[in-house]
Amino acid sequence: MIKVGGKVVEEESSLNALLNDFTKLEGCKVLVHGGGRSATKIASQLGIESQMVNGRRITDVETLKVVTMVYGGLVNKTIVAGLQARGVNALGLTGADMDLIRSVKRPVKDIDYGYVGDVEKVDAVSLTELLRSEVVPVMAPLTHDGNGNMLNTNADTIAGEVAKALSSVFDVTLIYCFEKKGVLRDENDDDSVISSINRDEFKQYVSEGVIQGGMIPKLENAFGAIDAGVSQVVITLASAINESDGTRIKK
Amino acid sequence: MIKVGGKVVEEESSLNALLNDFTKLEGCKVLVHGGGRSATKIASQLGIESQMVNGRRITDVETLKVVTMVYGGLVNKTIVAGLQARGVNALGLTGADMDLIRSVKRPVKDIDYGYVGDVEKVDAVSLTELLRSEVVPVMAPLTHDGNGNMLNTNADTIAGEVAKALSSVFDVTLIYCFEKKGVLRDENDDDSVISSINRDEFKQYVSEGVIQGGMIPKLENAFGAIDAGVSQVVITLASAINESDGTRIKK
Question: Is B76 in contact with A72 (Cβ distance < 8 A)?
Answer without folding.
Answer: yes
